[in-house]
Amino acid sequence: MESPLISIIIPTYNAVKYVQDTINSCLNQTYNNIEVIIQDDCSTDGTWELINTLYNFNPKVKLHRNLKNLGIGENWNAAFEKAKGEFLIIFNADDLMEPDLISAFLVVFNSDPTIDIITGKFEILFSNTGKTILYPDHVNLEGGVVKDLFEKLYFKSSFHWNFSLVKMELIKKVKLSNGNLFLDIQICDYELWYRCFLANAKVYFDTTKTWGYYRKHESNNSSNPNGELKSFLRVFLSHHHISYRKLGGISYPKTLLRNFITFCNLYKRGSSFEIKVFFLYLKRIVQGIA
How far apart, in whole angstroms, are the C-alpha atoms of residue 211 and residue 96? Predict the structure, then answer.
């Protein structure tokens, strides 16, 4: 494999506090043949102005802005449409990658061309304290080709696209029927992982080192758990309920019920409660039993 082009897409929205460090961590890769595609979704906090000032004349950085706010999934689709590389990294606008991630992962691809995705160990960085912890799912996860990928994606996400290099050949294979890559939902990244599983993707998990840092702060989309819950219960399971029930077996309704009880208990402790989530849980539990 001769120096293939690597596309790094970074959808941005109101990330002015973090986006410079994020883009620099991509530009500081020891591997040089990259394009960094920034797709701004009409930020209102100065993100667009900052990245134009800093990167407008950098030939590796492609700056784009939507005419109107599109939302998470559609903005990610707009970024992906511009990618021209043989490999793809889907990166958040507030996270960080190690400088040798691409070069190291390409070595693994060269050693086994049948691999579709290489994903790596990462840590959570708490912005308010600067402290880091290993992503919990990685504590006891063995390196190498991932066995039983469904188990790693069942009601959770053991991996992150931030710290993954994926063949564009696979990505084109798993595109939606309308030509888009992402569903327009909050957990569009997780749903894409599951579609890759359904396409029998061969995934390699690299535990050589910590390959990056997922920043945890007050503006994370994941800080709105009900938003992710609604995406999962309403849209994700609308698409994947049959395979989830088939592959999960009796554990499928049991897990739904257990999570539903947890949701109700959190409400008792003063957490936000949404009646829509309550009834979505009931609907999916009934479907899982029927």
Answer: 9
Contact residues for 263 (Cβ-Cβ < 8 A; gap 6+): 229, 277, 278, 281
Domain boundary among 198, 222, 246: 222
CA distances from 249 to 154, 241, 283 (A): 12, 12, 17
Calpha distance 54→22 (Å, rounded): 13
| Res 122 pLDDT > 90 | yes
The type of residue at 117 is: I
The alpha carbon dihedral of 69, 71, 73, 79 has a sign of positive
List helix spans (H) across the chain: 19-27, 47-55, 72-80, 101-111, 149-153, 168-173, 188-198, 225-230, 237-248, 251-268, 275-289
Q: Per the structure, how many domains does the chain have?
A: 2
Does the pLDDT value for residue 63 go beyond 70?
yes
Q: Are residues 272 and 188 in the same domain?
A: no
From CA 78, how far away is CA 74, in angstroms rounded? 6
Separation between Cα atoms, residue 89 and residue 273, nearest integer Å: 35
Domain limits for position 249? 224-289
- The answer to pTM > 0.90 is yes
**From CA 120, how far away is CA 102, in angstroms rounded?**
11
What would the pLDDT profile of 228-273 be if each residue is shown by its tens digit? 899 999 999 999 999 999 999 999 999 999 999 988 886 665 566 6
The CATH number for 124's domain is 3.90.550.10
Residue 222, pLDDT > 60, answer: no
Q: What is the pLDDT of residues 130-151, one digit of tens each?
A: 999 999 999 999 999 999 999 9
